[in-house]
Write a structure and sequence with these properties.
2% of the residues lie in helices and 40% in strands. By secondary structure, it is an all-beta fold.
Length: 288
């Protein structure tokens, strides 16, 4: 709803495009909403006011953002304004109203924990969100680069928390007998399908929670993706940005080849980025 104020009654038409990660930043309006001269009421200061209401039927982006399972924030609104009978218009008291509804989050089947994780059995092979993950969107199996991948949506916030990990997706794999062995690296294929990505970096961290190391052992080595340099990335036939991520297992302190690692965490940290879109992982494994 918008208060429309004129110095004298006239015809006003307004079409709106709400923008945010939830609608990919653009959804065309169906129509403009009109106010006619007889809709305006004279105010004590001599101006004329009417309230213009734009619904989801007029501007579908409102519903698309409202029903998004990743980000329901309207970060900008584009207005197309037309008038007949006046050249000056004042807008005030923008309001968005509606009712809150719970949007169910449906993950694909968890399956049995497995390394290597290739997701070809139509399950998540044990991967789930850590309980303290800032992102809890649906974990689904999606096609990427000709194979099945574990995938999720994320939109990093525009206003950054003081702790960058506070907005990070954290994937967790619990697996009996999880050990490094004689392997030197964690490897996985990582893909991005951005709705928005032009600045900052995504820093991928690796950690384990072995009881023998006080339930925390984090690799000092990280894998960093520079979003300002996407043009240098390999692009798949299906239009995804492809990275072969590798993190040095020898940079993890206080573990040995036969240490029971208990569970493995992958943390996708936002470092002053504007990323919004879909992420994918595949072929997760320890390698030499």
């Amino acid at each position: 709803m918008i208060d429309v104020i004129l110095t004298s009654p006239a015809t006003v038409a307004i079409a709106a495009i709400p923008q945010g990660p939830g609608n990919g930043w653009w959804t065309n309006p169906v129509r403009a909403v009109r106010l006619f001269p007889n809709d305006f009421i004279k105010q004590v200061d001599g101006t004329y006011k009417a309230v213009l209401t734009i619904t989801a039927e007029d501007s579908p982006g409102l519903e698309i953002i409202g029903m998004s399972d990743t980000d329901n924030t309207i970060q900008n609104i584009v207005l197309f304004v037309g008038t007949d009978g006046t050249d000056v218009i004042y807008l005030d008291n923008f309001k968005v109203s509606g009712k809150k509804i719970e949007i169910p989050i449906i993950h694909d089947s968890l399956g049995e924990a497995k390394l290597p994780s290739d997701f070809e059995d139509d399950t998540r092979q044990g991967w789930k969100w850590s309980s303290d993950s800032a992102v809890q969107t649906a974990l689904t199996l999606e096609e990427a680069n000709g194979s099945k991948d574990l995938s999720w949506k994320v939109a990093y916030p525009e206003v950054k928390p003081s702790d960058p990990w506070a907005s990070a997706p954290r994937l967790d794999l619990w697996m009996d007998g999880l050990k490094r062995g004689n392997k030197n690296f964690l490897f996985f294929d990582f893909y991005l399908a951005p709705d928005r990505a032009s600045e900052g970096t995504i820093e991928i961290n690796l950690a384990f929670q072995p009881p023998s190391a006080g339930y925390w052992a984090q690799a000092s080595n990280t894998y960093v993706i520079d979003l300002s340099d996407l043009d240098s990335a390999t692009v798949t036939n299906d239009g995804l940005y492809h990275y072969e991520a590798k993190i040095d297992l020898n940079s993890v302190p206080n573990i040995e080849d036969n240490t029971d690692l208990r569970n493995m965490l992958l943390i996708f940290v936002d470092v002053n980025s504007d990323f919004a879109g879909r992420m994918y992982i595949d072929n997760v494994n320890f390698i030499e």
